[in-house]
Specification:
By secondary structure, the protein is mainly alpha-helical. The chain has a domain of 111 residues: 50s Ribosomal Protein L17, Chain: A. It contains seven helices and three strands, in the order αβαααββααα. α1 crosses α2. One of its GO terms (molecular function) is structural constituent of ribosome. Keywords: Ribonucleoprotein, Ribosomal protein. Part of the 50S ribosomal subunit. Contacts protein L32.
C-alpha cells in the first residue's frame, strides 16, 4: 500500500527524476517560461518554489543550498540577481501553470506552460490597467463633495435622456380626479330601547 505517498514518480528512478527536475528548474529560471506536461509542471512547481524562496535571502548559505540542487553558476547568478529582485514582495506562489488546449501528439499527454508570475508582462499590464480603471471610476453612494454630487447628477440626467430617446413614449394614463371623503358627523349614543328616529325627533 502507498498510503500518504503523494510524490509523483513520473516513471523514473529517484536520480533520474532529480536530474530532470534540476534541469527543468534551470531552464525555467533562465527562460522564465517553459512548455511541458501537466504532471511534470506540478512536480517542478514543488521543486522550484522553495529554491525561489531561498533566493530572497542572499547569503552564502542560501546560495550553497540552491547550488547543491541546480549545479549551474549561470542559473545561480540569474536567480539571485534578476529573479530575486522581482519576486521580493511576493509571499509565495511564484509560478503559474497555464493548460494548453491541444494535447501532445503520440501519447496524448496534457500539455501546459509553466512560467514565473512576475515575468509575464502582458498579464501584469492588464492587471495594473484593471486596478487603475477600478480606482478612477469608483464612486461612493453617500454624500461626498459637491463636485462629485454634481457629476453624478449630470451623468444621471444624460442617462435619463438617452433612455427617453431610446424608448418610445407611452400613452399617458387617464387623469383621475381625487374625491375627498365627506367629513364625519358627530354621533350620539342611544339609550336602551331608543331608536334613531326617536332621537332625531327630539
Amino acid at each position: 500500500m502507498r498510503h500518504g505517498k503523494t510524490i509523483n514518480h513520473l516513471g523514473r528512478t529517484a536520480s533520474h527524476r532529480n536530474a530532470m527536475l534540476s534541469n527543468m528548474a534551470s531552464s525555467l529560471i533562465l527562460h522564465k517560461r517553459i512548455t511541458t506536461t501537466v504532471a511534470k509542471a506540478k512536480a517542478l512547481r514543488k521543486f522550484v518554489e522553495p529554491l525561489l524562496t531561498k533566493s530572497k535571502n542572499d547569503t552564502t548559505h542560501s546560495r550553497r543550498l540552491v547550488f547543491s540542487e541546480l549545479g549551474n553558476k549561470d542559473v545561480l547568478k540569474e536567480l539571485f540577481g534578476t529573479v530575486s529582485a522581482k519576486i521580493a514582495g511576493r509571499p509565495g506562489g511564484y509560478t503559474r501553470i497555464i493548460k494548453l488546449s491541444q494535447n501532445r501528439l503520440g501519447d496524448n499527454a496534457e500539455l501546459c506552460i509553466i512560467e514565473l508570475v512576475d515575468f509575464n508582462d502582458t498579464l501584469l499590464e492588464a492587471k495594473n490597467a484593471g486596478e487603475a480603471k477600478a480606482t478612477t471610476t469608483r464612486r461612493s453612494r453617500r454624500g461626498g463633495s459637491k463636485k462629485a454630487a454634481g457629476d453624478v447628477t449630470t451623468e444621471a440626467g444624460t442617462s435619463a435622456e438617452v433612455v427617453a430617446e431610446a424608448k418610445p413614449a407611452k400613452k399617458a394614463k387617464a387623469a383621475t380626479t381625487e374625491v375627498s371623503a365627506p367629513e364625519d358627523t358627530a354621533t350620539e349614543t342611544l339609550k336602551d330601547g331608543e331608536t334613531r328616529e326617536e332621537k332625531a325627533a327630539e
